[in-house]
Fold:
Amino acid sequence: MNTPRRHHFVPRFYLEGFCAEDARGLAIYDRVRRAYRAQRTTEVAHRRDYYAYEDEQGNLVFEIEAALGQVEAAASETIQRVDNGEQLTADDKMALATYAAFQFTRTPAYAAWLEAFREQWEAAGARREQLDALPEMPNPVADRREALGAMLRHAPRFAEVFLRMNWTLWARESERSSFVTTDSPVSVVWDQRPEANAYAGAGILSPDVITVLPLSQASGLAMSGIGERVDRRPLTRDQVRRVNLAVVSQAQHFVFGRDMTLVENLVRTTGIDRRPWQPPLRVD
Structure:
């Protein structure tokens, strides 16, 4: 008999260092309800059986949830090595690229982005063969298995793209600073724009775009351009703040941080409490 499971939007290794029994363990901003709250880590932003589907007999099947658990487990070991400053192996890169791909495609924000991307390509006069080359958009009213299948088909493509990009592993210089994360943790931002919370207006492989993923409270991953470099860069407190602003600016529903003062400041500075969410990638 299958046991109901809960999928957590915040990876368990991001929560390391929080006390599971402390109600003040994690600070959360809910963009939809425009509300702040503190919550135990065991109760944070989950949906029961989010990736389960029914078989022909009506029984819930948890194969996808189990596979995603394996992806997170492999990434967790790699992220621990990143936090410890260790050298990444080829297997580590594959684990992290796969994790980043699923973090991107598993979210409701991804489906909304894909829909908007197709619409703007059509408005920009893209040829039919170009539109056909885009990934198929998961249909929210379609069969649940079809939507989950779309996620599983798209993620390996993004993993291949991420593997072919130059990586920079960010590490905070001081424990006084901390990376935050969101329910849409893969952010796409301009490299040269002065506004730290600016949305990108091009695709992931655009030379002026950086794809950002917080890995833990202590480290993050930045991917850009085509190449195989893996660099490391310590970030000052101000630089961590700029990364946090970019990440928070693209949160669709939730922002997660280690303390409420930090979360409130980032929300106020980005202004996400005063404007609706929009897909971060656009065709101009």
